[in-house]
Amino acid sequence: MLKIGTIEIKQPYVMAPIAGYTDSPYRRIVRSTGAGLVYTELISAEALVRGNKKTKMLMEHTPEEKPVAVQLLGNNIDTLVRASQIARDGGADIIDLNLGCPARNVVANGSGAALLKKPELLREILIEMRKAITIPFTVKTRIGWDEVSKNVLQVVDIANENGVDAIAIHLRTKTQGFKKGIDMQSLIDAVKISRIPVIGNGDILSPLDAKSMIDQSGCAGVMIGRGAIGNPWLFQMIVDYLQKGTYVLPALSTIRDIMIKHIRMMSAFYGEQKGIKLFRKHLVHYSKGGPVSPLTGAKYSSDFRAAAVTMEGLEPLIHLIDSFFDRFLEAGNV
């Protein structure tokens, strides 16, 4: 069990915030497949304070998603304080501050991973945000700006000293981006000195990866990002593996049902036309790699994607998905 402030999370396997993906429909999908905690997409504190409608929509959530962490991005103390209060009043269970986004436009503005270069400003931000809210407060960070300025242990100390309830650590530097390879030793060292729960993040693509990170570091939980896109059943496989020592890949019928459930949710949440358009990027991930391609064949999966991304109506798209899977279900690949 993972405890963040007053919130107890039975399954300490967390869906990372990913811009363009972790919206309300996808959060509901991964909660139904074993994720114990979900995050909103990255939310600009400044846009939220200005009342931007699209930004406010990023915070919308349903009871099935709870607990929900709202992740804020910014570097202005007053703006972050006001945004955290708005998020709290909007039903957030946890407020999270982003210290890890490596996007060029974000760090150029002094936000995201750029805050790792200004530990004193970070300290002031944490102090004031903690004063402003009583609900659980967390941070998500990288291990440093680059290989010669890894200061994650300093960030852990600052978080420990200033009322933060948990810290998630992506085991790469800002300059590393998402290149292959994570620094497990940084997580091991952080867990040793931290008085608050530490959540490990980076390169968790299988249940074995999750178990290895927990076993090596002693971290309180793991956060899964890109490995869960198009692969939401990864959470259930992790739960099964860590509880029972074994797991199975989902059946094609299960994948089909999740895809159809997901597109119906997106159509209801955004409206049919927009929901279908936004679902296309998920569809590509669902049907590429994982347990799908080995059973259906890469060529047929490619043809399916090419047809699916041109579909405009909800029911025709669902019919296409059904037809794609029926061909193999009838052959006994259930």
How widely separated are the two ends? 33 Å
Name the CATH superfamily classification of the largest domain. Answer: Aldolase class I
User: What structural class do the secondary elements suggest?
Assistant: alpha/beta
Report the count of strand segments: 11
Count of domain modules: 2
Mean pLDDT: 92
Please explain how this structure is put together.
The chain is α/β, with parallel strands linked by helices. It has two domains: 243 residues, TIM Barrel; 78 residues, Non-ribosomal Peptide Synthetase Peptidyl Carrier Protein, Chain A, CATH 1.10.1200. 48% of the residues lie in helices and 13% in strands. The protein contains 15 helices and eleven strands. The strands form two sheets. An eight-stranded parallel β-barrel has the order 3-4-6-7-8-9-10-11, surrounded by six helices. A two-stranded antiparallel sheet has the order 1-2. A hairpin with a 2-residue loop joins strand 1 and strand 2. It is globular and about 60 Å long.
List keywords for this structure.
globular; two-stranded antiparallel sheet; Non-ribosomal Peptide Synthetase Peptidyl Carrier Protein, Chain A; 8-stranded parallel β-barrel
Short description, anyone?
By secondary structure, this protein is α/β, with parallel strands linked by helices. It contains 15 helices and eleven strands.
Q: Which helices and strands appear, and what pairs or packs with what?
A:
Blueprint: E1 2-4, E2 7-9, E3 13-15, H1 24-32, E4 37-39, E5 43-44, H2 45-50, H3 53-57, E6 68-73, H4 77-89, E7 94-99, H5 104-108, H6 119-132, E8 137-142, H7 152-161, E9 166-170, H8 184-193, E10 198-201, H9 207-217, E11 221-224, H10 234-244, H11 252-270, H12 272-286, H13 292-296, H14 298-308, H15 314-329
Parallel strand pairs: 3-4, 3-11, 4-6, 5-6, 6-7, 7-8, 8-9, 9-10, 10-11
Antiparallel strand pairs: 1-2
Helix pairs in contact: 1-11, 4-6, 6-7, 7-8, 9-10, 11-12, 11-15, 14-15
